[in-house]
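hey team, just a heads up i'm posting the complex here instead of the shared drive bc the drive is being weird again. everything in one block, sequence lines first with there labels, then the predicted structure for the whole assembly after. its two chains so it's a bit long, scroll down
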Amino acid sequence: MKKIATIAAVAALTASSLTMAQSFQEAFDMNRAMYGAGATFEWNGKSYNTNYIEEELASKPANQANAQALFDAAKAKLAEVREAGFAWRDNVKYLKQAKEALEAGEYQKSMDLAARSHLQSRIGLEQAETAKNEWILAVPPLN
Amino acid sequence: MKIIKTTLLAMSVAALSQTAMAAKTGATLATVDPEADRIALQEYMKNRFPDTPISEYVNGIYAVDAASRAQWEEIEEFPPYELDLEEGEALFNEQFANGKSLADCFDNGGEGIRQNYPMWNDERKTVVTLEMAINECRLQNGEKPYGWKKGPIAKVSAYMAYTSRGNEFAIDIPNDDAKAAYLDGKKFFYTKRGQLNLSCADCHLTGTNRLVRADLPSPALGHSTHFPVVRSKWGDIGTIHRRYEGCHRDSRSEFLKVQSETYRNLEYFQTYMSNGLVVNGPGSRK
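-- predicted structure starts here --
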């Protein structure tokens, strides 16, 4: 009985210890979820903020050059995620709206929309990467 | 020493517990085993719904939810696809300008053959669905192809399914090229995608008969046996690829074109999973 209890305790400790070494991404995701954008957190002795890269890009001065650069980056990212087969449904719509805003001289609006499109593509690519090894885990095993 | 042994044993238990519920093989062409997949899916459903015989899965959600079934049985007293069947039969028998008809393009005059589709075409190295074969027949005989999702294509397909009712699905995977197409379809079915991060399996395997808002997703087993279907939501008859497009869109993915290679491979995988079940299309669904 004592042995079984010891096994159970060590098994529980082992399982929990697997999750204790937090990667940067895990630390970022946790702090982002808890505090939202614009917060800071410590990881491995250094300080980082909780902004997505797209929020950093969209907060640059709203001018034609920055809006065009962000639009081009979002367009390239969309092509990449489409190639992987993981594009999201509304992504094209945001990119089209970003282009319309850019042409109308509404640079901040364009940058916000392109940033949203870029974010969707980036997460879609993360899905594609995760799926490579994990899709098989959903298949029922033959007992 | 005793502590080390106990610790190692416990670590093994912890590791095993995390992998026991997942398939360990079948992700590659070298290891994929369609028959093992089919039996495993049946076992999964038997465990989830022990009171439901496997043969009942041709009825979709109505196999596992009594309340939905009662409503469906009342609808089936006057099947909403009856007129579509009549029109489908007329279209099937319609003579082309060259004097031939659809019957000339299929084995057995096109009757009682639904259970063999989708079919692997080794010359073209691709999966051919029944709807694809119908439209290719029309093109080869100088006729315009039908639209892919609803209307005449679904009606003709419904008639051909009706003439096959009771025949057991017998999808063949004759070689490694075909197996690769099957694996592609299997991978698509189990892969999470879209803004909602959902796979087909999330709704139609683990999510079967569990409320998604007001809907109860149907079981994956038997999915393709009853298509084409008249869906209450559509208000008319449609093909399985029309449904694929809708599901894909609902996961907030950029959906594919109907009859794309990916959707055809998905249908190939899904219909192989239904091997041994009978054709009971066309059907009516919520």
